[in-house]
Amino acid sequence: MKAFHTAITRRLSVAPRRAVDPTNTESSLAAFGSGALLARASLMSALRLPGFVPCAKFALAFGANGARSANPAYNLAGRGVLAVAQRLVEGTFVAGESLDDALRLAERLEAERGVGVLIDHSVEDAVDLGANRARKARLVDAVPAGAMVPLKATALADVAMLEELSDLVARADDPDAARLDGALADRLDSSHAYAEAVDCLAALGEAAGRRGVALLLDAERTPIQPAVDHVALAVLRRFAGAPRPALYNTYQCYLAGSGRRLRLDEAACAAAGAPFGAKVVRGAYLADERPTGKVRESKAATDAAYDAALASMLGAAAAGRPAFLVAATHNPDSAAKAVDALDELGLRRDDERVAFAQILGMCDTLTAALAAAGCRQGSKRERNSQLQRLRSRPFSTRCRARKLVLYGAFDDVAPWIARRLDENKDALGAPIAENALLWRELRRRAFGRTAAASPADLAP
């Protein structure tokens, strides 16, 4: 198996054959009107201006704080700033304020582009665990079959318990292996809170499984991530023999040791007879994690770790183990290499165990290229016929190219957008690099000719 994994890693490390080609904008951007393209290209161009991102983050923080202020003048100014920001991002990066807005957008994405969805409410902070759990249960019950729903552990589990458990893991001789030690939970002062968290996630997983919905457990910051892993693995073990994982845990490849943790967890689930789900990302907390000394030395090292993680999961799937992967990436090369690997391993591009995901409004050419490469639902004829009956049937579970569709009051959305601006370069740099493709497609539509694509079009 080690030799098999090494061979697949080598395949993923070489230049892709471009089975996925985001540079074919006439095809990948066909579903976008010229007005929408112009607005998106203009916004992405603004993100490249010196100082724009810090100013945007400041404006969002000012607006969010002002909207909650009791000071009438500050409140009015804050709401004004948020109103302007809302006009810029609604429909581009977020669906709207209600779940109905998100469901309507999800219908259009599948019907027009063959793209599936992850649907989430924008609230990220835990204020009332009971309310958060009830809200998430309602969301799981409301989204269509085939959709995915992100979960945030700090909104569903007691944070003090997570900190205590992470401390126990950190004191072990082998912290990575200690995450698999179920007996650690018995040593917690807050063992009841641990049981509540596991029961909550297991109940959500059971409800999601009945409806054909997948749950994705978001990554947390390093101080509490070991506890999140421990809880996730306890939930997964409860579903031994199930056809699909109860949830997907997230693995951040900019952290040293992420590959070993992924392999340990997959092997533990395989030994327990439980399907294993992994969402593989480069990472979301780079600025916060750098001082810990646990971040990889370079972006190139992170890229290599990311491709190796995909190789590990694809190799496990090809070997017949119940390993399920969501490759969340805005990097065209990683996506193209993974699709090439699917072909070389003899896996179908629409294999239910493999999905690709991007954030709404970011790297739309990549998402469309993945759908066009076969990581989508059905044929064009099938999609056209389903357009008439889409509202009367569940979404196809064969949509493998996906978009994260967020909804919520803009006061709640603003912190989420600020965090996206603060993430690593692949989460923002790739969409900015994609901007050249947007302008190239606009020129093609305006002047009726196609400019040749260059490698610089997709340089991060």
TrEMBL record:
Q: Give its E.C. classification number.
A: 1.5.5.2
State the superkingdom. Answer: Eukaryota
What UniProt keywords are attached to this protein's entry? FAD, Flavoprotein, Oxidoreductase, Proline metabolism
Where do the Proline dehydrogenase domain residues begin and end? 114-427
Required co-factors: FAD
Question: What InterPro entries is this protein classified in?
Answer: FAD-linked_oxidoreductase-like, Proline_DH_dom, Proline_oxidase
Its function, per the record, reads: Converts proline to delta-1-pyrroline-5-carboxylate.
What PANTHER family does the record point to? PROLINE DEHYDROGENASE 1, MITOCHONDRIAL, PROLINE OXIDASE
What family does this belong to? Belongs to the proline oxidase family.
This chain belongs to the protein called Proline dehydrogenase
Species assigned in the record? Aureococcus anophagefferens (Harmful bloom alga)
